[in-house]
Write a structure and sequence with these properties.
About 30% of the residues lie in helices and about 25% in strands. By secondary structure, the chain is α/β, with parallel strands linked by helices. It has a single domain, classed as 3-Layer(aba) Sandwich (Rossmann fold), CATH 3.40.50.
Length: about 100
């Protein structure tokens, strides 16, 4: 019997690095990725990979001028995610 895995996209600029929000996202994705029914993809500019069960995708950012960093990340993340077919998109950013 073939089981269709649900594809989950997680959007966060820095994955697994310092910060409470980053740590929360790491814990959430690592636990979900252990479940055989889910396929987890993280879209980030920087990350510290912990699990082989998570697919990582590099999202470029605009560093200068500084006010374009967040909207630039949102633009590029959205562009990548729209090319794939995800069942769930989870973000801790304004994207």
């Amino acid at each position: 019997m073939s089981v269709n895995r649900r594809k989950i996209a997680v959007i966060v600029p820095k994955y697994g690095l310092v910060g409470g929000g980053e740590r929360f996202v790491l814990e959430l994705t690592e636990r979900i990725a252990k479940h055989p029914l889910y396929e987890v993809h993280v879209f980030a500019n920087q990350w510290r990979a912990v699990s082989d069960n998570v697919a990582f995708h590099k999202v470029p950012i605009i560093r200068f001028p500084k006010f374009l960093t967040t909207p630039g990340f949102a633009f590029f993340a959205n562009r990548q995610i729209s090319q794939m077919n995800f069942d769930i998109v989870h973000s801790h950013e304004r994207v």
